[in-house]
């Protein structure tokens, strides 16, 4: 148990009859009149639904014990993604729904954080950015360098993003794993 004064981003709460909700953001508010309260944005760990919820300051909330483990993506087995615990070398298959958007940026050997609650994987967190090679993009035309346009490019994971017109097939780029945006070239 904790109180709303102890909330932190990433903390997982058990609310509404045992559902798990991750704290995305929170704000303590002390109005001029009346009692203080905490405004939160919560994300349902299983469904991904995001809701706004307000608690009175000091309200007791039940926290869930979530084990965050450093793991490495090993391979894909059918539809499941198999991760290896970097401490125990134990293999853990995770279904695609749990992996979610992270699947767009996963290559064998990539490190990730896997959140586990009572033996069940809840979600997979990647670093803020990853470096990937452009598998294919249309060639740029001379003179494209000065315009600010973008073109589609397929990454080595098969995911497609928009890149500046001067990027070519085979280049290594940095990609934001939260938004899927191009962040820049990687000089090799």
From TrEMBL:
Q: Where is the Elongation factor P C-terminal domain?
A: 130-185
- By which gene is this protein encoded? efp
Could you tell me the keywords of this UniProt record? Cytoplasm, Elongation factor, Protein biosynthesis
Q: Does the keyword Protein biosynthesis apply?
A: yes
The UniProt function text for this chain reads:
Involved in peptide bond synthesis. Stimulates efficient translation and peptide-bond synthesis on native or reconstituted 70S ribosomes in vitro. Probably functions indirectly by altering the affinity of the ribosome for aminoacyl-tRNA, thus increasing their reactivity as acceptors for peptidyl transferase.
**A Pfam family matched in the record:** EFP_N
Which InterPro entries is this protein grouped with?
Elong-fact-P_C, NA-bd_OB-fold, Rib_uL2_dom2, Transl_elong_fac_P/YeiP, Transl_elong_KOW-like, Transl_elong_P/YeiP_cen, Transl_elong_P/YeiP_CS, Transl_elongation_fac_P
Localization per Swiss-Prot or TrEMBL: Cytoplasm
Q: Does the keyword Cytoplasm apply?
A: yes
Assigned protein family: Belongs to the elongation factor P family.
Q: What PANTHER family is this protein classified in?
A: ELONGATION FACTOR P, ELONGATION FACTOR P (EF-P) FAMILY PROTEIN
Q: Which CDD domains match?
A: S1_EF-P_repeat_1, S1_EF-P_repeat_2
Q: Care to name a GO molecular-function term for this sequence?
A: translation elongation factor activity
Q: Which residues form the Translation elongation factor P/YeiP central domain?
A: 68-122
Q: Which Gene3D superfamilies match?
A: 2.30.30.30, Nucleic acid-binding proteins (2.40.50.140)
User: Which SUPFAM superfamilies does the entry mention?
Assistant: Nucleic acid-binding proteins (SSF50249), Translation proteins SH3-like domain (SSF50104)
- Annotated pathway: Protein biosynthesis; polypeptide chain elongation
Q: What is this protein called?
A: Elongation factor P
């Amino acid at each position: 148990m904790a109180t709303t004064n102890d909330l932190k981003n990433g903390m997982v709460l058990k609310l509404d009859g045992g559902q798990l909700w991750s704290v995305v953001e929170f704000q303590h508010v002390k109005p001029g009149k009346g009692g203080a309260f905490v405004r939160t944005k919560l994300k349902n760990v299983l469904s991904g639904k995001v809701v706004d919820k307000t608690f009175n300051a000091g309200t007791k909330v039940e926290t869930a014990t979530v084990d965050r483990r450093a793991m490495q993506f090993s391979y894909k087995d059918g539809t499941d993604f198999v991760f290896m615990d970097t401490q125990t070398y134990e293999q853990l298959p995770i279904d695609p729904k749990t992996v979610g958007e992270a699947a767009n940026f996963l290559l064998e050997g990539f490190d990730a954080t896997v959140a586990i609650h009572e033996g069940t994987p809840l979600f997979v967190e990647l670093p803020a950015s990853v470096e990937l090679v452009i598998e294919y993009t249309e060639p740029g035309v001379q003179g494209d360098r000065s315009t600010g346009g973008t073109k589609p490019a397929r990454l080595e994971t098969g995911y497609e993003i928009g890149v500046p017109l001067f990027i070519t097939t085979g280049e290594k780029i940095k990609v934001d794993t939260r938004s899927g945006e191009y962040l820049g070239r990687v000089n090799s």
